[in-house]
Write a structure and sequence with these properties.
This protein has about 350 residues and is α+β, with helices and mostly antiparallel strands. Helix content is about 30%, strand content about 20%. A 5-stranded antiparallel sheet has the order 1-6-9-7-8.
C-alpha cells in the first residue's frame, strides 16, 4: 500500500419480520403527523431527532411504533427508580439543557447527515448537562477510524483500508492490490448503510465516479465483503455497563447485502455463543482509555469471516438501536446503569 492509505486488520414485530427500526435513512416524507412532544421538566432527556418526536404512531407506522415502544420501556424503568424522563429533539434550539441532569442518546439518527451541526452541538451542550454516553466516547465513535484503535488492542475487526479525504484512491487498483475480489466501501462518518456500496473489479470504476465528489472531502473505509452475511446475517450483541444483555440477528433481504430494515433487512432471534459474548465484552472493555470511560450502553455488530472466525464489523456507542422490546429486562438494566452514571462524579 502507498503511504497515503492507512490499512488496518454495522407495534413491535416478531422474529423474522422487519423489526429493526434502524431509522438512519428514513425519508422526511415518512414523518408521522401525530402529536409531537412538548418540553417538560424532567431528570433525563432521551434524545431523538425531529422525525421521531411524535408521541403516538399510526397503526400502520410500525417503524415509529418500535421506537416509541423501546423508549416507553426505558421510561417506565427509569420511573421505577424515581427518575423522570422526556423525549427531546437533540437539535431543538429552544431546549434548556441545563434543566436536565443528563441527556441520553437514543434515536439521533440524522447526526451524520448534519455532522458539523452535531459536533458544534456536542461542544455546546456538554457544558450545560451530562451526556450519556460520555462525549469522549461519542467523538471517538463518530469516525470509523476507531476500528483501527480496537485492532491495535487485539480486537479482531473486519480488515479495513482507510481512504483519507483528498487521497484520490484508485478503487480498481486497490482491489487488485488487496486481493479483495468483492468489497464494501462506506464513509467513515455514516450510519444505516448510507452511501455504502458493494463493488468488484467490474464495478469499481463506476462506483469511484459516483463517489468522486465525496472522496475529495471525506474519508472512506474499504473492506472485503463477508459472504456469510448473505447466508447467516450479522449478529448484534447489546451490552450495558460492559455486560452482555441480549442479542439479535439481522439478515438482508434476498438480492441485497444490507441488513438494515431501511433496505428490507429482517430481525431474528439470536442465542450467541460464549465466544461471541466474550468478544463483545472484550471490545467494550477496549473502549476505556485514559481519556474515555467504559460505555454505559452500546452494541457490538459481528460477522463470521471466511475462516469461520468472528470479527467486529461495527461498535455502536452513539445512538444504537437496542431492541429493548425483544428483551424487556434490558430496559431496567439500562435504567439502573443510567442511575449509576448520574451518581458518579463527571
Amino acid at each position: 500500500m502507498t503511504s497515503k492509505f492507512h490499512k488496518e486488520q454495522d407495534g413491535p414485530h416478531t422474529t423474522g419480520t422487519t423489526a429493526g427500526s434502524g431509522g438512519k435513512s428514513r425519508q422526511l416524507s415518512d414523518i408521522s403527523h401525530a402529536p409531537h412532544i412538548t418540553h417538560a421538566r424532567a431528570d433525563i432527556a432521551l434524545l431523538t431527532d425531529h422525525r421521531y418526536t411524535a408521541t403516538q404512531a399510526a397503526a400502520s407506522d410500525w417503524y415509529l411504533g418500535n421506537i416509541l415502544h423501546d423508549d416507553a420501556l426505558l421510561q417506565d424503568s427509569l420511573a421505577q427508580l424515581g427518575l423522570s424522563s422526556v423525549r427531546v429533539d437533540w437539535a431543538d434550539p429552544t431546549v434548556d439543557w441545563t434543566s436536565f441532569s443528563c441527556a441520553v442518546f437514543r434515536t439521533t439518527w440524522d447526526y451524520f447527515e448534519r455532522i458539523t451541526e452535531f459536533t458544534a452541538w456536542l461542544d455546546r451542550v456538554e457544558k450545560q448537562t451530562r451526556l450519556c454516553n460520555d462525549t469522549s466516547l461519542i467523538r471517538w465513535n463518530l469516525d470509523k477510524h476507531y476500528l483501527a484503535d480496537l485492532q491495535s488492542m487485539g480486537i479482531p475487526i473486519v480488515p479495513s483500508l482507510f481512504l483519507e479525504a483528498g487521497s484520490r484512491p484508485d478503487l480498481p487498483s486497490l482491489l487488485s492490490e488487496t486481493g479483495w475480489e468483492d468489497a464494501i466501501i462506506k464513509p467513515c462518518i455514516s450510519g444505516g448503510a448510507w452511501n455504502t456500496y458493494r463493488l468488484d473489479l467490474s464495478s469499481a470504476g463506476r462506483i469511484q465516479q459516483i463517489l468522486e465528489p465525496q472522496l475529495a472531502t471525506e474519508a472512506f473505509m474499504l473492506q472485503p465483503f463477508q459472504p456469510d452475511v448473505l447466508q447467516n446475517g450479522e449478529d448484534t450483541l447489546i451490552l450495558v455497563d460492559g455486560i452482555f444483555t441480549h442479542a439479535i440477528t439481522k439478515r438482508p433481504k434476498p438480492g441485497d447485502f444490507r441488513v438494515q430494515d431501511d433496505h428490507g433487512g429482517t430481525v431474528h432471534a439470536c442465542e450467541p455463543s460464549i465466544e461471541q459474548i466474550e468478544l463483545a465484552e472484550r471490545a467494550f472493555a477496549a473502549c476505556r482509555s485514559e481519556n474515555r470511560p467504559l460505555p454505559v450502553y452500546g452494541r457490538v455488530d459481528m460477522v463470521r469471516d471466511q475462516n469461520g472466525s468472528w470479527r467486529i464489523m461495527e461498535l455502536e456507542l452513539i445512538e444504537p438501536e437496542l431492541w429493548l422490546r425483544n428483551h424487556p429486562p434490558a430496559a431496567l438494566a439500562l435504567a439502573q446503569a443510567i442511575a449509576r452514571f448520574l451518581k458518579d462524579k463527571p
